[in-house]
Amino acid sequence: MLKVYLDPCTVNCRKVLAGLELMGAPFERVDVSYFAGDHKKPEFLAINPNAALPAATDGDFALPESNAILQYAADLNGVSQYYPRDLKQRADVNRWMLWEAATWFPSCYVYLVENVVKPLMGAQPDASVIEKEAPNWHKLAGILDARLARSKWLAGEGVTIADIAVAAPMHLHVRQRLPLADHPNLKRWMTEGVEQLPSWKRTQEAVDNALAPKQ
């Protein structure tokens, strides 16, 4: 069985957790605290020397990178409805997942750091950082909005792991203060689509608990 090392408060861990839930993929969860720095300890570095969460193992096979974990789990469990085997359909899913990692995540992350992480750490957000990133974020959100004007989900009429991957960087969009109102198709997809998925709802409690103020 796949063993997954994660902390649900992080973007990429939420992605894997929600994606595995979506696929109904069995896995053993191993909690690794991000804020406690457990991902930098020798036992985790032996699995992922990049010291980044999440990571997974399948026997003696170690696999970092959240998107790769979802792709592997989909094939391992034969759930082609979420990761199509048709060459063109799979390429479409792959390209959104690659785009998320290379382009979308870094932009959303700026909002996450300034409006979520800094307040959690007792620091003040820097409005100038958000202002500088905003044009790029709106450009990227416009790409998604245009795509979602043509279909219910990113890769067609059925949800795939691409939707989970692209939604993950904006999973705290209210706290991040992402200006979704300017992109109605993106907002519809996130609030009426992704956030209504049972798998997404099941992971919300874990995220809320991870971000709750400690007593």
Features:
215 residues, alpha+beta, Glutathione S-transferase Yfyf (Class Pi), Chain A, domain 2, 8% strand, Glutaredoxin
Helical element count? 9
* Secondary-structure element string: EHEHEEHHHHHHH
Per CATH, the class of the largest domain reads Mainly Alpha
- Name the structural class: alpha+beta
What is the architecture of the largest domain at the second tier of CATH? Up-down Bundle
Low-confidence stretches: none
Instruction: Tell me the strand percentage band.
Output: 5-15%
Evaluate the radius of gyration: 17 Å
Largest beta sheet: what is the strand line-up? 2-1-3-4
| Major β-sheet annotation | 4 strands, mixed
Give the CATH topology of the largest domain.
Glutathione S-transferase Yfyf (Class Pi), Chain A, domain 2
Topology:
Elements: E1 2-6, H1 11-23, E2 27-31, H2 42-45, E3 55-58, E4 61-64, H3 66-77, H4 87-120, H5 127-148, H6 161-167, H7 173-176, H8 184-193, H9 198-211
Parallel strand pairs: 1-2
Antiparallel strand pairs: 1-3, 3-4
